[in-house]
Amino acid sequence: MFHPLRVREVERLTDDSVAVTLTVPPEFREAFRHTPGQHIALRRIVAGEEIRRTYSICAPATEEPAEPVLRVGIRLVDGGEFSTYALKELSVGDTVEAMAPTGRFVLEPRAGHFAAVVGGSGITPVLSIAATLLARQPSARFCLIRSDRTAASTMFLEEVADLKDRYPDRFQLVTALSREEQQAGLPSGRLDEERLAGLLPALLPVADIDGWFLCGPFGLVQGAERALRGLGVARTRIHEEIFHVDDDDGAGTGTGTGTGTASVTGASAATGSMHTAAPPTAATLTATLDGRSGNWPVRDGESLLETVLRSRADAPYACKGGVCGTCRAFLVSGEVRMDRNYALELEETEAGYVLACQSHPATAEVELDFDR
Ligand code: FES
What we know:
Blueprint: E1 2-14, E2 17-23, E3 39-46, E4 49-56, E5 70-75, H1 81-88, E6 95-99, E7 113-119, H2 123-136, E8 141-148, H3 157-166, E9 171-177, H4 193-203, E10 211-217, H5 218-230, E11 238-244, E12 283-289, E13 292-298, H6 304-311, E14 328-333, E15 336-338, H7 346-351, E16 353-355, E17 359-361, E18 365-369
Parallel strand pairs: 7-8, 7-10, 8-9, 10-11, 12-18
Antiparallel strand pairs: 1-2, 1-6, 2-5, 3-4, 3-6, 12-13, 14-16, 14-18, 15-17
The chain binds FE2/S2 (inorganic) cluster (FES).
FE2/S2 (inorganic) cluster binds next to loops.
C-alpha cells in the first residue's frame, strides 16, 4: 500500500544523482522502519499513468523510539521517467507516494567480518548496511570494495569517508575507478572476475568472511560472484542485488517490461524457469492478497501479476522486470514458468516462491498467495 510522504530534503550527490529524504509521520513510523539494505517503491502518476520505481535506503537503520530516516539514493537513468523527475523537479515540500520498505538483501547487525563489492549506485543499500553494523556491533568489521567511473561520479563520497574516520580499525575501503587514475587505491580499470579473483585474497581473509554483499550492475555482480565461488566461498554467504539489467544480459527471455531503472533492487542472479511444462490453452488463477482471495481467467500471454492487477489494483509490484522482488508470491498449487528472475534467491524458489510479474501458468489451475 502506498502512503503519501513529504519531501524533507533533496541533496545533490553528483551531477547525476541525488539523495531524497522523506518525512515519516508518527502513524507510519513502524511501517517505515527498515532493515539495513532494504528498498522502497515510489510511485508517481503522470497523465493518468502510474510510474513505479524502487530505490534503496541509504540511511542507517534506527531503533525505537528514534524516528526512521527514509533517505534514498536516486541516480539519473537515460530516459528514466522517475529519476528525471527526481533530479529535475522534485523539491522540498512535495509529496511522494511510498510503499513500506521491503527486500531481502539485508544484514541484521551481528558480530563478524563482512565485505561488499559494489559498483556505481550499488553503494546505496550497502552504505546503510555498513553504517548500521559498525554503529551497533562494536566488534564487527566491514570491508567495502567500490567501483566507479570517476571520483566526480561517485555517490556518497562524504558518508563513506565519514565511516573511515569514525571506524579506522574496523572499516576498510578500497576504491577502483574505471576511467581515472588515483593517487592512492587501485590502478584504473574495471573490477571484473579476473581482477577480483586476484585482488580479494590479497585484501581479505576470504574464507573467514561471514557474509559478502554484491550490489550494482549485472556484469559486476556476476563477475564478483564467479570470483568468490572460484575462491571457494559458499553460495549461502553471498548476497546479491542487481540494479540494472539489460535485455541482452543473457538471463531469461526478457518478456517483462523494461528494467532500466536507477535503483531497482533485490536480486539474485539466479535465472530460469520454475517449470518447463507446455503452457495450457486456458488457465485460471486463484490468488490471495491481504487476506482476500479471487479467481480469474489468465489471458493469453499475460503474466500472473497482470491477471491479478486487472481486478486488484493493490497487487504489489514495482519494476515488472524480474529485478526488484516486490511481486514475490508463494505458489500454493499448480506450476508456473518464469521468464526471468534476478530477485529471488535459490532457497526462495526452492521453497516455492515465484515472481508474479514473470510467471505464466504451466498448468490449467494455479494458486498464488501474496501474503506468505
Ligand atoms: S515487480 Fe519487480 S520483480 Fe516483479
